[in-house]
Amino acid sequence: MGDIQIGRQDADDLSERAAACVASYAAGLADEGLDVPLREVRRCHAVSLMLFNGLPSLPLERLDDPDEAALDHWSRQRAAIARYALDVLAETEPG
Fold this sequence. Notes:
Layout (H helix, E strand, L loop, with lengths): L1 H4 L8 H18 L6 H17 L13 H24 L4
Helix pairs in contact: 2-3, 3-4
């Protein structure tokens, strides 16, 4: 998320990268002897994603940027983070 937030990468393959991270994290937990169901790992990922990346994703710090095209592109990428975070949260169930 950080590279998208600072404009180094686009959000085009965000869901694929996130799925790989969640699967790897769950595998790492299992390697350490913690048997956490994948649905719980996904839910925890969704909640933390929303709190730490979705809610603060609006680019308020750059609204005075004179390069309107760059600001537009960057704003769209940041909006993609928020949209993705909301979608991931909606796809998981508490519990």
